[in-house]
Amino acid sequence: LQYLQENFGATEDSKKKWIHFFFNKSLIALETHAQSTAAQFFMGNELTAADFLLIPLLFTATRFEVSFDNFPNLKRVNENVTILDFAKRSHPFSQIDTPSELRISI
Fold it and tell me: Is the distance from CB of 45 to CB of 19 less than 8 angstroms?
């Protein structure tokens, strides 16, 4: 996002629009796939690499207030994964170098 600001003079509003545009494109594709594969997790009822790769994307989407209203499968998968202990411990806001105003406890 700094690149957009520094090289193109992007404002906070234009950066947010950019994020929402590209995240929605990604989430549409993922939701379409999830319609035929997702159950508790992205590829069924067992964790796979897909879940480990999906969660950071969904975290970032949440951080930038991208709505999950049109992505019920992704929303469910995110909820099911983020309650697991490993996900709580690896959450970006639970890390030792997280600024205190953002830090969460597990």
Answer: no
Residue 51 has, within 13 A of its CA and on its CB side, a CA count of 25
Whether 5 shows a pLDDT value over 90: the answer reads no
* DSSP bridge partners of 94: none
Q: Residue 78 has what pLDDT? A: 92
Instruction: Give the helix ranges, DSSP H, for the chain.
Output: 2-8, 12-37, 49-63, 72-82, 85-90
Contact 30, 69 (CB under 8 A): no
Q: Tens of pLDDT along 64-105?
A: 899 999 999 999 999 999 888 777 776 666 666 666 777 677
Q: Please tell me the total number of residues recorded for the chain in this structure.
A: 106
What integer best gives the mean pLDDT of the chain?
87
CA-based end-to-end distance of the chain: 29
What is the pTM for the complete model shown? Answer: 0.80
